[in-house]
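Researcher: Please predict.
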Amino acid sequence: MPRHRLSKGREMSSKDEKNLGQVVDKIAGMDEPQRGLMQRVHDVIMDAAPGLKPRIWYGMPAYARSAGSPALLTLRNDERLNLSVTEKAPLRPAGGPDGTLMPAAWYFETIDADTEKRVAEIVRSVLD
């Protein structure tokens, strides 16, 4: 399969590049301010885990280990913006006051440096 170089020096197959284009187009079709927020979260995900492959999963931007594997993370644009970890990712009990509950979704309305840092931590945690 031919390889294509995207910006930021990433190598991607033509299938991965097509899938990335679909995710970028999906985000570009959103209204502001959601579009800007989703684009920023997409960038944080790609920077935190350059090996994840973006693609559309059930109509949402999603990220998986490969084009043929299940999505580990999704971005959802409903009444609120949402970053979710799918059941295909390793989930661990939260501990502390949350006991055996396993955090799997986070809503956001804005993106600041602390939120970007936490999103990057969540993204890296699905790769463990």
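Model: The two ends are 28 Å apart (CA to CA).
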